[in-house]
Amino acid sequence: MKVAFIGLGVMGYPMAGHLQKAGHDVCVYNRSVEKAQKWKTEYSGSYAQTPALAAKDCDMVFCCVGNDDDVRQVVLGEQGILAGMPTGSILVDHTTASANVAREIAEIATEQGKYFLDAPVSGGQAGAENGMLTVMVGGEQTIFDKAQAVMDAYARFSKLMGSVGSGQLAKMVNQICIAGVVQGLAEGFNFAEKVGLDSQALVETISKGAAGSWQMENRYKTMFAGEYDFGFAVDWMRKDLAIAFEEAKKNNAPLPMTQMVDEFYQEIQASGGSRWDTSSLISRFKD
Question: pLDDT by residue (tens digit) across 24-51?
Answer without folding.
Answer: 999 999 999 999 999 999 999 999 999 9
